[in-house]
Amino acid sequence: MTDKRIPFNWPYMTGKELHYIADCHHHGQLAGDGPYTQRCHGWLEQHTGCAKGLLTHSGTAALELAALLLDFAPGDEVIMPSYTFVSTANAFVLRGVVPVFVDIRADTLNLDERLIEAAITPRTRAIVPVHYAGVACDMHNIMTLAQRHGLKVVEDAAHGAMARYRGRSLGSIGDVGAYSFHETKNLISGEGGALLVNDQTLTSRAEIIREKGTDRSRFFRGEVDKYTWQEAGSSLLPGELIAAFLWAQLEEAEHITRRRLEIWQRYYQLLAPLEQAGMVRRPIVPADCDHNGHMFYVLLAPALDRQRVLAECRRQNVSVVFHYVPLHSSPAGRHYGRTHGELTVTDTLSERLIRLPLWVGLSPAQQEKIVAVLTMAVGSTN
Ligand SMILES: *Cc1c(COP(=O)(O)O)cnc(C)c1O
Questions:
Q1: Which of 40, 53, 270, 363 is a plausible cystine mate for 371, CB 3.0–4.6 Å?
Q2: What is the pLDDT of residues 231-258, one digit of tens each?
Q3: Which of 156, 191, 295 for mutating ligand 1's site (highest number of atoms within 8 Å of CB)?
Q4: Which ligand 1 atom minimizes the distance to the CA of 159?
Q5: Is the CB–ligand 1 distance for residue 29 below 6 Å?
Q6: β pairing state of 168-169 and 164-165
Q7: According to CATH, what is the number of the domain 17-251?
Q8: Domain coordinates of the chain in residue numbers?
């Protein structure tokens, strides 16, 4: 094992995926919104308590559906962290909306709720919290602020399936929330996602926009006798084969989450000495957050050279990776967005972060090797 490369990610499959796909094949159910999609929708609604769960073909598509649904005008603004995936901003930029980047908290790397109010202008329409690593943003203060200023809240819960904040599922707290089922997430369908619609007044339009701007979903339920073009929309739904794959994952969501949390917890314990030595900082999870073991990262001490630590770990066959390049420092981020205030925490912590392999099936021995290699790499670059 010692000379075998430990991959950063390895998709976990339950074993039932092909069985459910064969079932679709057998019944000739290939287009979207068939029985497996309905099952997934039911799971989303029961599990998260959202008013409507809608599968999309990616987390990106879920965010785009959110942006279409909320109907903002060009020049409107949404407040979000810069430390996130491009899709968080892209979905709004495609509508002509300006992302306004605010700094993150040093403990969770989530949008710093204390900095939001000062970034609000007469054009602000929404706050877009991203629950990094499945650890919730301070949703209590974010929702209070949004209500006070009449803003929408779009949760980017791409990392957040099965994670909770004060007992509530991530993605079910704001007006809408987006999940991703990309291969690198906890629950997967290759590419895939879902929009959780929590505001009851938005559910029927969300269905319409997702189905090419038509009331086809109502037609299928027998509520109208023909379906027609109702408003501007797109085709954002996955086919049944993807939904069938996803259903196998959702059935085992508890099991998958438990196993990821065990791995996370083991890293946390194994890395205590390195933290005590002042070499790394482990993740901090606030008391009101139940995370889902989506990611384990460490923040290197400022004096350490991340490039060299990464290179040394890879040389020892341990695949460790950095994460987001802050959007405000990217060409498109500079062109389409603007920053509010200094993004000092974003700039400094994003350059010190390393993610460790975390996937169902990673063995305790592999974790010990990873921590030993990291410890050596950190020592040799100090
Ligand atoms: C993965 C991810 C997305 C996009 O999801 P896809 O399913 O890959 O389109 C959006 N936001 C964040 C924070 C993500 O990590």
A1: 270
A2: 999 999 999 999 999 999 999 999 999 9
A3: 156
A4: 15
A5: no
A6: antiparallel
A7: 3.40.640.10
A8: 17-251, 253-381
